[in-house]
Amino acid sequence: MRNDVSRSLWLCVLALAATSIFAADLEAQLSAVEARTAIEEAQATSDENGYGELTVAELMQELGVPGASVAVIRDFAIHWARGYGVSDVETLRRVDVETMFQAASISKPVAAMGVLKAVQDGLFSLDDDINSVLRSWTLDGGDLTRNRPVTPRTLTSHTSGLGDGFGFPGYDPDAPLPTTVQILEGHEVSNVGSVFMEREPLTFFEYSGGGVTLMELALTDARGRPFVEFMQDGVLDPIDMTRSSYRQPISPEHDANAARAHGAEGESMGPKWHVYPEMAAAGLWTTPTDLALFAIEVQRSARGESNRVLSQSTVQEMLTPVGVGPFAVGFTVSQNGEGWYFSHGGSNWGFRALVLAHKVKGYGLVVMTNGDRGTTLINELSRRVQIAYEWDSVAEPVRRGSGQ
Predict the structure, then answer these.
(1) From the CB of residue 7, how many other CB atoms can be counted at a distance below 10 Å?
(2) CB 67 within 8 A of CB 85
(3) Angstrom distances, CA of residue 207 to CA of 6, 53, 169, 389
(4) 151: left (phi > 0), else alpha (psi -120 to 50), else beta?
(5) Can you tell me the distance from the alpha carbon of 94 to that of 83, in angstroms, rounded to the nearest whole number?
(6) What Rg do the C-alpha atoms of the chain give, in angstroms?
(7) Which homologous superfamily is 100-331 in?
(8) Chain region(s) in the chain for CATH 3.40.710.10
(9) pTM, entire model
(10) pLDDT in tens, 120-168
């Protein structure tokens, strides 16, 4: 490491810090141990960077990622979950499966489930003009919305035509926070520019956190309740996401086991974390276990086996691209190898995360990290999981007439 945490301390902490949960029966437990061990050890195959040659502990040390947490889904259930490393280099508190991380942009598909719940409850439709839903603000679409309005469907799939040209850097915990309207208008207290129409809706795909923030305002207006409250009551609690909250800043109770944000070399950056008033776009605090439960609920709802939040027909909106770009309502949907997957990544100040799950086969993964170089670690862990579990994303296509 190129910071004050020595290599020996890192490896010692990583060795002591891993904690895990497994399936209840012995046979499944042994299988989980075997798969996890195969993922944690040095690999038989590697990429051009040689990351496969390292154990998970060595890889984290090499990349300067202090902590990571993983949950793996198999057969529509969590097969195993485990924490690695430390949640905070200042306290050396270890990561466990209940350590909360910032989900960053994975906040968006979870919020999209809240949008679809409102649709299911009859508050508006996915194709309503967003101005017919809004009560506290009006979007000026000008001539660009003359033929087709901005709608909940286009806002949640990044096809609304809105431009913002920014991500969300978050705010120091002591800084004043803008309201949602002030964020949309680029008020002086906001640290991002205003949201504006750039093109006609459904013309092109352009990722827009500002568009999701506009959807948050519309959803809050339609519910007549604070976003944090109805997301907790309507989405998080029904799925048993007990270690999840959109509250910004995080509550003192949850912060007791919340990860610190770290820089590119694993260093503390001053404040423990940044605050994100853009809650639907970037504000969810959660764990891989909770996000895995969310992914499983989507998978099982699509099979008609669960309707704790959405019906089988409504959840298909999260799994069916809108026709322009790769997004459905909330998720990217793409073909990986021989399978179709829904996914979303996340990148906040000092945090990186990924959720990836198969549309029909009941497997997936969630990885969350507390370092700016976490994406490289996530990609390698994802590769290892897919190989160890023989996902169809890494399968060779069947050749016609091969008899296989």
Answers:
(1) 11
(2) yes
(3) 40, 35, 16, 32
(4) beta
(5) 8
(6) 21
(7) DD-peptidase/beta-lactamase superfamily (3.40.710.10)
(8) 100-331
(9) 0.92
(10) 999 999 999 999 999 999 999 999 999 999 999 999 999 999 988 678 9
